[in-house]
Amino acid sequence: MTSMPTDRANQDALAAIAAARPLLVAVGRAGDVIPGFAAHDLLHAGPPLAADDARCGALRGAIAGALLLEGVTDDPQRAAALGEAAPWRLRSADSCSALGTFGGVISASSAVFVVENATTGVRTFSAINEGRGAALRYGSTAPESLARMRWLDGEFASTLGAALRERGPIEIFPLVEQALQMGDDGHSRQKAASALFMGALAPALAMTASDAQVAARALAFLAENDFFFLPIGMAAAKGAMRAAEGTAGASLVTAIAFNGARCGIRIAGDARWHLAALPPIEGAYFRGREARDAGPVIGDSEIMETLGLGACAMAGAPALARYVGGSVAQANAFTDQMYAVTLGEHPRFRIPALDGRGTPFGIDARKVVATGIAPVFNTGIAHREPGVGQIGAGYGRVPLECFRSALAALG
Amino acid sequence: MTSMPTDRANQDALAAIAAARPLLVAVGRAGDVIPGFAAHDLLHAGPPLAADDARCGALRGAIAGALLLEGVTDDPQRAAALGEAAPWRLRSADSCSALGTFGGVISASSAVFVVENATTGVRTFSAINEGRGAALRYGSTAPESLARMRWLDGEFASTLGAALRERGPIEIFPLVEQALQMGDDGHSRQKAASALFMGALAPALAMTASDAQVAARALAFLAENDFFFLPIGMAAAKGAMRAAEGTAGASLVTAIAFNGARCGIRIAGDARWHLAALPPIEGAYFRGREARDAGPVIGDSEIMETLGLGACAMAGAPALARYVGGSVAQANAFTDQMYAVTLGEHPRFRIPALDGRGTPFGIDARKVVATGIAPVFNTGIAHREPGVGQIGAGYGRVPLECFRSALAALG
């Protein structure tokens, strides 16, 4: 398990991630701001889908919704069929440094957060979170879901963008640091970070909104959406991970993601995805829902675990532990297990319940294989049918197979 | 230690407190909205000051500041002297259902929160928190402290009041419930509650502010002041405690307060204050400060402990435990000790780190005397000289003498 070149490479990779200073610099239209984005691209979460991979319900609905929003047709059935064929091209968001939340698809007119790692200058992108309930990222093409998306991509995004220009870039990790002192795990619980973000932007938003009603609508959405911060955190994490990518010999994990058909990870020392079948999810279902209602896992948000958040920080998020049907003891056990498979402790993200100990930081594929501890990740659980929305929350374990494959590739 | 009439009385008192539903209904001028408030009243924190009780530095500065703000004179020295004599009258805020934070004095033109317990209709009052640093409630009469008070009592209070009229009353305990899931103790840490309060009011504030600059200034103050919620919580707690007052035979503690000269408690079964010398404070000092810089304890905020918050909820506030120089183990020990001297567990205020157990609720003077465990309270530590401000934070223990005296009065 010891390999000096890999040890050194991992320390370099870890240092590059720790040095990241991601800033939210703008809100823009995907087609305008994402380098390499082509007019008919549809960016999906997770590793690239193979031609014969099944498209899960949420993804199919999201593709249809994207075409409806792009104004290609008014007919949801026709939109779904059109989206499967040229000129439309389904691509992994990862291929252009973007991320998808759950089934959410980014198309040309999607409003996206533009996050820049000030240390490297690299930019990353993620779509605005729509909130809970029937959302396009869960595949809903209901009129109210599309109307909300139009408002988000239009009035709301331009209001947010203007506020950000007035205020100047928002540094993201200080908000995450503080949110961890307030019971967030940085992944499945974003209540504190979302509230802190609102506080950081609200004065400039009130100042720059085109009128008081516009300001009030934007602030009401920010106040009610306690997942709002998630995609901002994801883009920040991606920018940090990008700084470690290409570190020859490093077994540090830079991405964990799901495309609704497969699970994939990447390591810093190898550009390829290492795939396995989707893992099962344990958790708690909302009233009236059960395991057989659940759709497959999809989404890029497990990038948070690679940064030392999510399941890594579970010991600091006891309210989340209850929400997913677990106990404080289980939350502590998850964090303990993540200490066993990580390279260090995060220098800034700290767990108040552990007297301020840094979170488990830098999942090491070698340690995973050596210990046989499959890393834990937090996740929401969505209904298998498009558009129903979230039906629970829980956790899963990234299959060991992914890590064995990555190590083999490292040689 | 068993006395059936007292047991029953205590259960009645506890039920009355648990049934409270405090609403923030308005922001108004003290002289207009506090029943029984006379034009030259100056309301101070804690039990009534005796003629020969020393006035601590913070209180002396706050009295001078009140007269400067009332426009009686422009000369701080003269203001201090004038405030000691007729027609000015120093009264305990408690005598008109109001509360003082630290040395803060409420005079006729002070803006106050009006909180109504919807269950009983009783109204309680507290002044707006000025934030950290050189503040009038720490006795600062510096020009910037007075300018901030004028803005708070004027533009800010009327902006807040208008927003509240637009939105309608804000129910206070749901915010506290959620804040406890976010690392607040409900007393010395108010970061989450303040952020949640801002979220609840910001949309209406943007809508009703006289212009965008006024809205932006108000929102910036709300976002920066992470103690903002404290006086709102105090007035809510007071409204709950008032519902238990006058329960014959009850040994449940309804107030813990300090006036800078003495410590006092009251119990539900007896209207009198039971006094003792001020207890020492343990804690952590900000850089460059030490114990000999500390002024005496003053303030009504320990009403939060009587409601099951503050030191009672310390096990749920690990970030606060570190802030006051303690450990998570010590925080857990404080909460454990409070379980030993309380009548029950709060039905709504829950500690996530204890798997959602209700906070220790209803300090019982009998249990305190029987166990010899002096109840813990959280507090800020201010400099002994007027106007320097907060120099640390910590905790103290309410002297057993107060509880013995209360039990003796109960007979």
List the defining traits of the structure above.
Enterococcus faecalis V583 fold, homodimer, 38% helix, 22% strand, globular, 411 residues, four-stranded antiparallel beta sheet, alpha+beta, 14 helices, 2 domains, v583 fold
Q: In terms of topology, how is this protein built?
A:
Two copies of one chain form a homodimer.
Chain A: H1 4-18, E1 22-29, H2 30-33, E2 41-44, H3 57-69, H4 76-82, E3 89-92, E4 98-99, E5 111-117, E6 123-127, H5 143-167, E7 170-171, H6 173-180, H7 191-208, H8 212-224, H9 230-242, E8 253-259, E9 262-267, E10 270-277, E11 281-285, E12 298-299, H10 303-306, H11 318-323, H12 328-340, E13 342-351, E14 357-363, H13 365-371, E15 376-382, E16 390-397, H14 400-410
Parallel strand pairs in A: 2-3, 4-6
Antiparallel strand pairs in A: 1-5, 1-7, 5-6, 8-9, 8-12, 9-10, 11-16, 13-14, 15-16
Helix pairs in contact in A: 3-4, 5-7, 5-8, 6-7, 7-8, 13-14
What does it look like?
Two copies of one chain form a homodimer. With 411 residues, chain A is an alpha+beta fold. Chain A folds into two domains: 21-234, Enterococcus faecalis V583 domain (Enterococcus faecalis V583 fold, Alpha-Beta Complex), CATH 3.90.1710; 247-410, v583 fold (Alpha-Beta Complex), CATH 3.90.1700. Helix content of chain A is 38%, strand content 22%. The first copy, chain A, has helices spanning 4-18, 30-33, 57-69, 76-82, 143-167, 173-180, 191-208, 212-224, 230-242, 303-306, 318-323, 328-340, 365-371, 400-410; strands at residues 22-29, 41-44, 89-92, 98-99, 111-117, 123-127, 170-171, 253-259, 262-267, 270-277, 281-285, 298-299, 342-351, 357-363, 376-382, 390-397. In chain A, the strands form five sheets. Chain A has a five-stranded mixed sheet. In chain A, strand 15 and strand 16 (390-397) form a beta hairpin. The radius of gyration of chain A is 20 Å and the shape is globular. The model of chain A has no long low-confidence stretch (mean pLDDT 95).
